[in-house]
Amino acid sequence: MPAPGELTFAAPRGAKPPRHLADLTPAERREAVAELGEKPFRAGQVARHYFTRLTDDPSGWTDIPASRRAALAEKLLPELMTVVRHVSCDGDTTRKTLWRLFDGTLVESVLMRYPDRVTMCVSSQAGCGMNCPFCATGQAGLTRNLSTAEIVHQIVAGARALRDGEIPGGPARLTNVVFMGMGEPLANYNRVLRAIRALTDPAPDGLGMSQRGITVSTVGLVPAMYRLADEGLSVRLALSLHAPDDELRDTLVPVNTRWKVAEVLDAAWNYAEVSGRRVSIEYALIRDINDQAWRADLLGRLLKNRRAHVNLIPLNPTPGSKWTASRPEDEREFVRRLEAYGVPVTVRDTRGQEIDGACGQLAAAER
């Protein structure tokens, strides 16, 4: 039975992803090595190789007897996913990776290097069941939830690429992770939460990232938003609003027919109050659809004096779609009107348009 706040969707029957170190709590890892007849401390050694040294190749595990490495690797670090291809742009500082999972499923992640930070956008589901009409992933439908380890491994691989200097600018550390790739993170609640724990647990149990560097996006699954607020985390919540009125949002974000704008915003303000973090309001500007000045005014009135920041996103169009980015003059007016209400607003730096940057495009092209 699903936990409260976790939605379930029909998915094709198939084998489960193999159990991996990143799926397990530290205690469960110790149990797993004990099943092999090993001392519990071996779990910490393997975790240190994976999370700190960023390697799953047992040949370099010199602190573990050579005769035991293969069994531990097979038990704790099975191969989960392989790279289909990398595509890069922005002077190779933006790199999108298409992954093939163990069952042939395709997902994507994006690594973006900026002068002051490095952000990785990761997928939490293969496809998405939210059916937003302007989103390539949403139109593809949901294939299945990713396992915790399938989520975490995207990030470990990105951290390894940065450390090894594969991204121009010299070796670097990953500073930010955003759950804004394929899928609705809060519809895969338990696995996403465990992934956050694995990312933020101190070494050797996890990557040791700051919770404040992690952002979890949602289209507005209200019960799960309240549940997340009760977890005691300091991650940022990003609400994909895209329209300030129910009439339009019912079309752009179909889950709005279940939880209306007022309910979704109430859940967002609750998260802001409990966590102490400002909520990011994501708003994709779509030409002649949601970019009217009166909608900017309505949004400004809804957000005035709230702990919120608006992230305006010029739509990255999907080939063949009627949905496209707003005119520059309409974008500027939208910003001006929000600022007139005292609402902090930025326009997202659009990266990756020349590499099928919108989530789901690369996977759709491969299929």
TrEMBL record:
Chain intervals for the UniProt region annotation (Disordered): 1-21
Gene Ontology MF annotations: 4 iron, 4 sulfur cluster binding; metal ion binding; rRNA (adenine(2503)-C2-)-methyltransferase activity; rRNA binding; tRNA (adenine(37)-C2)-methyltransferase activity; tRNA binding
InterPro entries with a match to the protein in the record: Aldolase_TIM, Elp3/MiaA/NifB-like_rSAM, Methyltransferase_A, RlmN_N, RNA_MTrfase_RlmN, rRNA_lsu_MTrfase_RlmN/Cfr, rSAM, rSAM_sf
Keywords: 4Fe-4S, Cytoplasm, Disulfide bond, Iron, Iron-sulfur, Metal-binding, Methyltransferase, rRNA processing, S-adenosyl-L-methionine, Transferase, tRNA processing
List of catalytic residues: 108 (proton acceptor), 359 (s-methylcysteine intermediate)
Reactions mediated catalytically: adenosine(37) in tRNA + 2 reduced [2Fe-2S]-[ferredoxin] + 2 S-adenosyl-L-methionine = 2-methyladenosine(37) in tRNA + 5'-deoxyadenosine + L-methionine + 2 oxidized [2Fe-2S]-[ferredoxin] + S-adenosyl-L-homocysteine; adenosine(2503) in 23S rRNA + 2 reduced [2Fe-2S]-[ferredoxin] + 2 S-adenosyl-L-methionine = 2-methyladenosine(2503) in 23S rRNA + 5'-deoxyadenosine + L-methionine + 2 oxidized [2Fe-2S]-[ferredoxin] + S-adenosyl-L-homocysteine
Residues reported in the UniProt entry to bind S-adenosyl-L-methionine: 183-184, 217, 240-242, 316
EC id: 2.1.1.192
Metal-binding among keywords: yes
BP GO terms, sorted: rRNA base methylation; tRNA methylation
Cofactors demanded by this protein: [4Fe-4S] cluster
PROSITE patterns attached to this UniProt entry: RADICAL_SAM
Matches recorded under Pfam families: Radical_SAM, RlmN_N
Role of this protein: Specifically methylates position 2 of adenine 2503 in 23S rRNA and position 2 of adenine 37 in tRNAs.
Record-linked NCBIfam families: rRNA_mod_RlmN (TIGR00048)
Assigned protein family: Belongs to the radical SAM superfamily. RlmN family.
HAMAP family for the chain: RNA_methyltr_RlmN
The name this protein goes by in its record: Probable dual-specificity RNA methyltransferase RlmN
Lineage, opening ranks: Bacteria, Bacillati, Actinomycetota, Actinomycetes, Kitasatosporales
Gene: rlmN
